[in-house]
Design brief:
alpha/beta, Metallo-beta-lactamase, Chain A, eight-stranded mixed sheet, seven-stranded mixed sheet, 9 helices, 25% helix, globular
Length: 294
């Protein structure tokens, strides 16, 4: 464990604060498919999470990357063929089903920044990812940050990402409990992205503003997405990222029941494929789907 001195700690904090106000597009070629709108793609990557957020000016932020190289194929379906950069990647937790796809991504694309939750893993996949991040830092100047509540990322045109959790040091926590929770907003529209956050995590979030779309925690597990949070958020749609006939039985029927009891429409990637929402700042159009052979 690395212990920072007081002076070093404040230097790191000041450096991070200089970055959190703006995520700058890496190249002029970073253009969204729908110009001037917020686009969010819940990628169909099997049993895992991968969510691409594109700001109105083309800024790209990728939350998680799924369990394997499927990520690259799915990105190829929603990004311009010439794009070879991602402005920021967000590791909501270090489990393989969230991070493995980042390894080939870092090998083929330039990444501007990496946001991590503060938890870690002893897995070979996590070690390989950390090696690729270190290489990207050396070769491309990729910056790395640990997420904390209050961080605010502007992604163009008034769209923004706010970190709601972790609100403390979670380095000794279980990976799911320490997941990054983020709110993505554009005008009067919003989404909540919860990674694998558990009901323990949800209880620490405090009051939550309503959203249009909820990314259901932990692939629809009964350990996440409690009644209290769903009732507070009042989403219209809930996206569940899960693989067909996965060994965990995700999504659990208890979670589906909570959603339906609150008049929320569940959308599951193994049924719908990649699920896309587009906002003009007033309303979300969609969702639209890219279906894949099973």
């Amino acid at each position: 464990m690395v212990v920072l001195g007081v002076a070093t700690f404040f230097a790191v904090v000041l450096f991070a604060l200089s970055f959190i106000f703006r995520v700058t597009p890496a190249t002029p070629q970073n253009v969204p498919l729908v110009d001037g709108k917020l686009t969010v793609d819940f990628l169909d990557i099997g049993q895992g999470d991968a969510i691409l957020v594109r700001g109105p000016d083309g800024t790209t932020v990728l939350f998680d990357a799924g369990p394997d190289r499927t990520l690259l194929a799915r990105l190829g379906e929603v990004l311009p063929f010439w794009q070879r950069s991602i402005d920021m990647i967000v590791i909501t937790n270090p489990d393989k089903d969230h991070i493995a796809g980042f390894i080939p991504l870092l090998q083929t694309m330039t990444v501007g920044a990496v946001l991590e939750p503060g938890t870690s893993s002893v897995s070979a996949t996590y070690r390989a990812l950390k090696e690729e991040i270190a290489r990207s830092q050396k070769e491309h100047g990729t910056r790395t940050f640990v997420a904390r509540k209050g961080m605010h990322f502007a992604i163009g045109g008034g769209a923004e990402i706010d970190i709601l959790f972790p609100d403390r040091d979670v380095s000794s926590w279980k990976t799911n409990d320490g997941s990054i929770v983020a709110r993505v907003a554009y005008g009067s529209t919003a989404l909540l992205l919860t990674g694998d956050a558990t009901k323990k995590t949800e209880a620490l979030l405090g009051h939550l503003e309503s959203v249009d779309v909820l990314k259901v925690g932990h692939h629809g597990s009964r350990t996440s997405t409690g009644e209290r949070m769903v009732a507070m958020l009042k989403p219209k749609w809930a996206v569940i990222s899960a693989g067909l006939q996965n060994k965990y039985g995700h999504p659990h029927q208890e979670t589906i029941a909570v959603l339906k009891e609150n008049d929320v429409t569940p959308l599951i990637t193994y049924e719908k494929g990649t699920i896309t929402f587009i906002s003009d700042g007033r309303t979300f159009s969609g969702p639209t789907f890219i279906e894949h052979l099973r």
